[in-house]
Specification:
By secondary structure, this protein is α+β, with helices and mostly antiparallel strands. Helix content is 62%, strand content 8%. A five-stranded mixed beta sheet has the order 1-2-3-5-4, covered by helices on one side.
């Protein structure tokens, strides 16, 4: 069909068959009455009715008539011509005008259809007046009323059909949008889980493996002269592997880290300092200032991981002899402050993260802290050590569970096994 030509409004099969049967019945009625009532020229009337039926019957059988409005209009003109012949021969042809109204309104454009219906009604009224030899207003009421009913029914049906189609398209769009949204949410969930696992692997397994590597190197250096020291380093490496295996199992299950399992953040940080000092031979002190404030579990985990990462950087890169971890509670905040007296570095000239050499630490810390609504500040310069502070607003009301653990409010207590991490 021509794209510029409005398509024909579809109808149900039942409605189409009812219309076919109505026209066939009226044509048969005209032929039978011509034979039974002894009208003039009964043969011509029967022939005109048969010709009209034949032309009408050819339309539904032709695919082009069903698909093209211009083709349908030509077929309808042929049917109308046969009907006019029948109408000229018999007054009973007037009854066929009613189904013709529906055909014209359905197959023709709105303005053309309205003109065709008006012409058909006038032809029916005029022919009936000629056959009866008189005219009365009552003769015009029937065809005119039938035309009005046909217009109201067909146009009402078309309006309902258009609204139904609009709703169907809207539902399809909503369904497609819902599917797109579900896919986007799934993708976002996958990316979020991937990011979570990446941070946990960096802050636990990667740092644990680094710690084990440093301890084994120390054992290797101690072997010739001090085997007892080598045995101690090997034991510490074994303990580090046990601790990190527990970490791996817990972060895969999205549980609270072992360091925060049954103890407070302050206890966990204190053990972290003690373990780091014992394993790597630098002085690490822990200080607690202010009154402890409750934090959600996810934020406590973030502060603990930040301290682990910062001390791991101190061990591997800073060349420091002392470090200090402070858990402070300034007004409205809970903050962890990590300082060392190492070589320091220029924060504006950090190397790009690399899978071989690392460099993901600071980025992972910043992402973790910022994603939970906290702040991370870094102060360092070559030759004057490093200071890093991670802080969260204190919440006096316990919060519900986070994806990393059970509900968090005021907490009692954790055990920690720090694992060094690569310097950012």
């Amino acid at each position: 069909m021509n794209a510029n030509t409005p398509s024909v409004t579809p109808t149900t099969r039942t409605l189409a068959w009812c219309l076919h049967l109505l026209i066939a019945g009226l044509l048969v009625l005209a032929a039978v009455r011509a034979l039974a009532d002894g009208l003039p020229h009964p043969g011509w009337i029967v022939a005109a009715a048969a010709a009209c039926a034949a032309v009408y019957g050819a339309g539904p059988a032709l695919p082009r008539v069903r698909a093209s409005r211009p083709a349908a209009a030509r077929w309808l003109a042929a049917v109308g011509a046969m009907w006019l012949v029948l109408l000229a021969l018999s007054a009973d042809g007037v009854w066929v005008a009613f189904p013709l109204y529906f055909l014209q309104l359905h197959l023709l454009a709105r303005r053309t259809a309205l003109a065709a219906v008006a012409g058909t009604a006038l032809a029916a009224i005029g022919a009936y007046a000629v056959h009866t030899g008189s005219f009365a207003p009552a003769m015009a009421i029937g065809p005119a009323l039938g035309a009005a009913v046909a217009v109201a029914v067909v146009w009402g049906y078309q309006t309902l059909y258009r609204e139904s189609e609009q709703r169907r398209r809207l539902i399809e769009e909503l369904t497609a949008t819902r599917a797109d949204l579900a896919e986007a949410q799934h993708t976002a969930g996958v990316l979020a889980e991937r990011e979570r696992l990446a941070r946990e692997i960096h802050d636990t397994l990667a740092q644990g493996l680094t710690s084990i590597q440093l301890l084994l190197r120390a054992a290797e250096r101690a072997l010739p002269q001090a085997p007892e020291n080598a045995a101690r380093f090997v034991g510490q490496a074994r303990q580090a592997s046990v601790d990190n295996l527990a970490e791996a199992r817990r972060f895969v299950a999205a549980l609270t880290p072992p360091a925060l399992d049954g103890s407070s953040l302050a206890d966990a940080l204190e053990r972290l300092c003690a373990t780091t000092a014992a394993r790597h031979g630098i002085a690490v002190r822990f200080r607690l200032t202010g009154d402890p404030r409750p934090l959600p579990t996810a934020q406590e985990v973030a502060l603990l991981r930040t301290a682990q990462s910062a001390l791991a950087n101190t061990v591997r890169h800073a060349g420091a002899t002392t470090a200090e971890v402070t858990l402070g509670h300034p007004a409205g905040q809970v903050a962890v402050h990590i300082t060392d007296d190492g070589t320091g570095f220029d924060p504006s000239r950090l190397p790009e993260p690399d899978p071989q050499s690392g460099g993901f630490g600071l980025m992972a810390m910043r992402t973790r802290i910022h994603s939970l609504g906290g702040t991370l500040t870094l102060d360092s310069a070559p030759g004057r050590g490093t200071a890093l502070t991670a802080a969260f607003p204190a919440d006096p009301v316990p919060r519900t569970a986070s994806p990393l653990g059970p509900a968090a409010g005021p907490r009692t207590p954790v055990r920690t096994h720090p694992e060094p991490e690569a310097r950012p």
